[in-house]
Amino acid sequence: MFKEKRNKGFISGLILSLVFFAFSAGTVFMWNHHQHPMDPFSDDTRSGKEVTMTVYDIYPEVVGEVEGGSVLYLVQYSNDGDGKFAVVEAKENDKEIQKLMEQAATETLISNPATLVGTQLQPLSKNVNNKSRNNRIVDLSGFLDSILEPDSTVALNMNSSVYLSLTEHSKDGWWHLISAAIFGGIGLFTLVSAFLLRKKSIAAFEELYQAYPELQGNVENLTGLAEFYDESLKVILYKNHLITYFKGTQA
Questions:
Q1: What's the mean per-residue pLDDT of the chain?
Q2: Phi, psi at residue 174, to the nearest 5°?
Q3: Which residues pair with 74 in a beta bridge?
């Protein structure tokens, strides 16, 4: 039966838009957590988690390169005992790394340590192909053995189980922002479409009542008065108007 339903299609569109907005908000929340992690670097050896690293010193030069364009730096991330050291993977001329270099050059980093936010990763073993979407370090232990004196303080206190990746963290952050923008855009489009559909439905009923005053308050009987009516197609032909009401009402 055909009834005056000015909100037909509007409510479902509104609910759908709210769902997309919820996904967008959830993605923004994940991005915020991604940018402000609580776990310290090397608290455990889990790979792929966001961490913070306190940096007390940094070697002033690039110590290695990773296939794909990123480079490696050596940093001191703890003052316990003789210190603890690790590798940081980042883009060459990374702004955060350059800032650390400047602080280290003025010898202020040891007394005023800086904090890096990145993704903790485990290096790949020597005989494993790198199938990661990022350029993972392969055979980190072997690389460190090739550049460090075996009896040096750095070598004896070097963490070769995990390293900090700034490039991985940056890519993940962009994925969160892009996903939030996509979900938000779809939600906005759906919301606007729902209001436009409601506006068209209201206009259609007003047009029908203006053209056929006898339908005012009697629109439920339109199907019995119509020259043509197909419930499966949601189509009504009444005098000079073709009416469709599959999603909203148009005349």
A1: 84
A2: -65, -35
A3: 87
